[in-house]
Write a structure and sequence with these properties.
By secondary structure, the protein is mostly helical. It has one domain: Cytochrome c-like domain (Cytochrome Bc1 Complex, Chain D, domain 2, Orthogonal Bundle), CATH 1.10.760. The structure holds heme C.
Length: about 130
């Protein structure tokens, strides 16, 4: 009986682990290569800079020409809102100027967001 309870607890733990995959910033760096077509961490390109992203209101980098849709979205960027946006940008913010289909793989998004978090704490973003 005790062994059974242990097994059940183990299965629950395994399920919980499946729900929140461990994020790997090193793997995320490779995925960020897809974003480099339009973005850089420290300066604006076709897309706005990603330094300072966490806690920033969507559409608020001064001098960047955002779409009205992004400016009006009322999103504040954090792990959760980024996950939603990056899964399908054009569905999450209809009318966005970010012409990118998104990152459909949940693990890839988690890795990518972990990479962005790490870089935001790094010297590259503190200049
Ligand atoms: C084809 C060019 C392009 C690609 C590729 C692209 N983006 Fe963007 N991104 C943009 C543009 C343009 C905007 C501004 C959107 C708007 O104003 O509606 C934007 C906006 C954003 C924003 C909102 C930032 C803010 O200041 O509110 C985030 C976050 C973002 N992109 C993340 C990413 C990530 C992560 C990737 C890679 C998976 C990516 N983008 C790939 C062009 C791109």
């Amino acid at each position: 009986m005790k062994a059974l309870a242990f097994l059940v607890a183990g299965a629950a733990l395994a399920l919980a682990a499946g729900a929140a995959p461990a994020a790997d910033p090193a793997a995320g760096e490779a995925i960020y290569a897809r974003c480099l077509a339009c973005h850089a961490l420290a300066y604006d390109r076709t897309g706005p800079r990603h330094c300072g992203l966490f806690g920033r209101r969507a559409g608020s980098v001064a001098g960047f020409a955002y779409s009205e849709a992004m400016k009006r979205s009322k999103i504040v960027w954090n792990g959760k809102t980024l996950d939603r946006f990056l899964a399908n940008p054009m569905a999450a913010v209809p009318g966005t100027a970010m012409g990118y289909a998104g990152v459909t793989d949940r693990q890839e998004r988690a890795d990518l967001i972990a990479y962005l978090e790490r870089e935001n704490r790094s010297a590259a973003c503190r200049k």
